[in-house]
Design brief:
The protein contains 5 helices and 2 strands; from the N terminus they run H-H-E-H-E-H-H. The chain has about 120 residues and is mainly α. The chain has one domain. The chain has a two-stranded parallel sheet with strand order 1-2. Strand 1, helix 3 and strand 2 form a beta-alpha-beta unit. The protein starts with a helix and ends with a helix. Bound molecules: zinc ion.
Length: about 120
Amino acid sequence: MSIEAVMQGMMRTQWMCDGIFDAVCFCRHYPTADDPEKAQCWCRKPKIGMLIDATRMIERKYDCVCPPHLALFVGDRTEDQECAANAGIDFMWAQEWRDTVPDISTIKLPYERYDE
Ligand SMILES: [Zn+2]
């Protein structure tokens, strides 16, 4: 899968969720590797580099502190679950999240939780 296809898929998900995600991240490193899925990178799950990048993006976006322990990692792959565990962040399977969060407008964003 090309980087462009990954980006389009993620932006489509963001659009379908009415822009709920504060950060959309994926590994942009080693795009010329013979098999990008197998390229080793510090930010590829289950390593936690991308979580650190996402946290920094959110902190810059909202000019706030974003404590990782308040995050919820929603994922659909075992490496997502492993990444959350490696970072000490709560994890929820994507299907469970979709089933239990019927109205995305009711979700409290991390920076709102932190301000309370
Ligand atoms: Zn990377």
